């Protein structure tokens, strides 16, 4: 098998509108519509889909759980701009900035939580 990329991830959320708004406004990700009105956000060449617990899009993980995700995204802004932007939206920094090792090498990361308590690592490559 020749797997080379990730197409999308699906987050189980408690409030669809709140999640879409947060990812769009706080992380500045464009909202996209697909599959009969479902919405998600675009992240580079990938997307994040959202589903609510009581209306999952089948097939679904065996135990779709709100707040169980932990993933990293990459930003190109300066660290100072990222921190300023998060402060403007009153987003609590869980940890960081910290040196980390990303898929493409050394990076500096900041950890935040979305409205459902998913842990999001915002990384900035050091190159």
Automatic annotation (TrEMBL):
What Pfam families would the database entry show?
Answer: Glyoxalase (PF00903)
Lineage: superkingdom:
Bacteria
Parts forming coiled coils:
none
Q: What is this protein called?
A: VOC family protein
Q: From which organism does this entry originate?
A: Levilactobacillus suantsaii
């Amino acid at each position: 098998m020749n797997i080379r990329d990730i197409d999308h991830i699906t987050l189980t959320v408690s409030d669809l509108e709140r999640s879409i708004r947060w990812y769009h406004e706080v992380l500045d990700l464009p909202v996209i519509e697909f599959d009969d009105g479902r919405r998600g956000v675009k992240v580079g060449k990938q997307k994040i889909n959202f589903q609510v617990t009581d209306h999952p899009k089948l097939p679904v993980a065996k135990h779709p759980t709100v707040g169980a995700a932990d993933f990293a995204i990459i930003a190109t802004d300066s660290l100072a701009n990222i921190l300023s932007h998060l402060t403007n939206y009153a987003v609590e920094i869980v940890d960081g900035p910290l040196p980390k090792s990303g898929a493409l090498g050394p990076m500096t990361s900041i950890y935040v939580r979305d409205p459902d308590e998913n842990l999001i690592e915002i990384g900035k490559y050091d190159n």
